[in-house]
Amino acid sequence: MGGLKVGNDVKKIKIAINGGIGFGAKLNSKQLVTISKYLNEGEELELTTFQQLYIEIPEDKKEEIIEVFQNVGLSCYPVGNFVKSLRTCNFCKGEEEEGMPVAKELNRRIAGKSVPFTLKPAYTGCPIGCGEVMLNDIGIMKIRDHYCLYIGGKSKGKDAEVGSLLMENLTPEELYRAVEKIIAIYTELGRKREAFYKFVNRIGRDQIINLVSPT
Fold first, then answer.
1. 50 or 167: whose pLDDT is higher?
2. Of 45, 150, 179, 214, which is least surrounded by CB within 10 A?
3. Is 43 in contact with 5 (CB distance < 8 Å)?
4. Are the beta carbons of 110 and 143 closer than 8 angstroms?
């Protein structure tokens, strides 16, 4: 999980943590207290734009510390060229209505998978799109009881652009299969450190559809 560093003769490793997939990015008091136990005076947490905190922990105690974090409801992810945890909007209505179980299951299936370059997926529970899904590598938007899938968004730089609609009217199972297939294609055909939007432009949207569609 992340690159190794050496400081005070103790090898440290960086991991990403958050409060799991829920109604926005939140931490409770027990989680904050637990995190603080692993910070020395003067050390800082890095807050990312993707609803994660980066923290450095001793490599030889990685499994022990991750277990402690998980016991207070924190989710732990690798740092580097992996699929990020699913970014979500602040779901406006009820959990079932806004598709929270689908978001949780999708995150369980894809977060932490190794890819050619960091891949950022996002999910929003309605067409308002508070999760900024169209500006991320893979974006999922729930519309009524089905899901639209966008790919190739780019949020930074003078050439920033929204992603394009790849598939629509997907059931949850169709959504899981499509996203997992896209990640598998990117893993197989993507070049080392090739950003996902560059991969989409190189391979082509039509070719991706052909590879993702059931045979």
1. 167
2. 214
3. no
4. no
Sheet holding 121-124, edge to edge: 87-88, 121-124, 138-143, 146-151, 164-170
What is the length of the chain?
215
Cβ 124 vs Cβ 102: under 8 Å: no
Tell me the DSSP string of 118-165.
-B-EEEESSTT-TT-GGGSSEEEEEETTEEEEEE--B-SSTT-B--EE
Strands 138-143 and 121-124: parallel
Query: How many H helices and E strands in the chain?
Result: 6, 10
What is the CATH topology of the domain spanning 87-212? Sulfite Reductase Hemoprotein; domain 1 (3.30.413)
Residue-range domain boundaries for the chain = 4-78, 87-212
If one compares 215 and 170, the residue with the highest pLDDT of the two is 170
- CA–CA distances in Å: residue 158 to residues 75, 114, 155, 161: 34, 28, 9, 9
Closest CA to 114 of 14, 190, 48, 211: 190
pTM score, whole prediction: 0.86
End-to-end CA distance of the chain: 36
Distance (Å, whole) CA 140 – CA 35: 31
Q: Which two tokens stand for residue 37?
A: 């136990």
